Amino acid sequence: MDIVVKGRKTEVPERFRKHVAEKLKLDKIQKFDGKVISLDVEVSKEPNPRQADRSDRVEITLRSRGPVIRAEAAAGDAYAALDLATGKLEARLRKQHDKRYSRRGNGRLSAAEVGDVVPGTAAFDEDGELVNDQAAQEVPTTKFGSLEVQGEGPLVMREKMHVAAPMLLDQALYEMELVGHDFYLFVDAETKEPSVVYRRHAYDYGVIHLRTDPLAADEAGGAGGALGG
Length: 229
Hints:
The chain is an alpha+beta fold.
């Protein structure tokens, strides 16, 4: 895999291209993500003299089989901007790597241990027959606001409130890739309605627009279904 360095409305000197290759060590990056497909570095320059301290901007885009990771920074020269952007990229790669590692079975239970740890789990005898436990049939009910849950399973209800400015669809896609999530909730700047962009297959994306309609209250299903399709 090669590193592609390009300039946007500016020339990129050969000296800087060599510096990029020295700064972005591929072997180090592949330790965090061994499925890297491409690594692009784009350099742009701000012509406004009032922004001389942020005149050079470097954006690094890493594409792999997982989510696209971007890191960008601006400084007084391209070399300083590259240093800042590289630091951000490594931090995000490390975070993504740690997230994948933590999902690979830390604290994962075997099938034989589930019955001992999770309350209300069906029990089986030595012959593999289901044990008819009368106590297990008396399932407790718990209410979380308007939601009623049966059993004592590991359900966690957490509510968050975010303040967000309306944005266009392409900005929402960029923000989703930037944070490395599979979906992103935003307020559409054109319709002023809540919408969701999400990753479908490979590099394809989907978008769900939610339109307020009081007459739809009696209809089953609607936009509350799972993301996909």
